[in-house]
Model the fold of this input.
Amino acid sequence: MAGTIEDRIHDLVSPLVESLGLSLWGVRFRTGAKHARLQIYIDGPEGVSADACADATRLISPALDAADLIGPAYILEVSSPGLDRILFTLEQLKASTGSQIRLELRLPMEGRKRFEGRLQEVGEDGTFRLEDKQDGLKEMAFSNVASCRIVPDFSAR
Done:
């Protein structure tokens, strides 16, 4: 099997989540001092209820056990991506054009790794333009993004 552990888990659980009428938003696997943590984010047209998360967990957990993709003991969390959702893919980034985002780069750009600002546009080549709060308009490569989240706007509520 090729790809990261997250890619393999994504391929395994995506059809299971879709069978519930939901979509797989993303997968994160993190190892910690005590336990590894597998986070599976699911979404639906009307959002995701606690019951939907429980249903997905009951479907996903035995499939993960049978596939035996993860060696150490881990904690499985199935949840909605939430308002401050992580953007896992370039397509998710494109759909968030105009939103406020916070990101961390793998490699520093102009001496910085953390940026926050309004996402202006996303190119087909994997680059995007961000109106950074600190330094103005920046062009970045999505391939250099370690993590990216939506910054929820509560002002309109």
Remarks:
- The chain has a mean pLDDT of 94.
- The helical segments are 5-18, 50-67, 90-95.
- The radius of gyration is 17 Å.
- The beta strands are 23-30, 36-43, 74-79, 100-109, 112-122, 127-132, 136-141, 145-150.
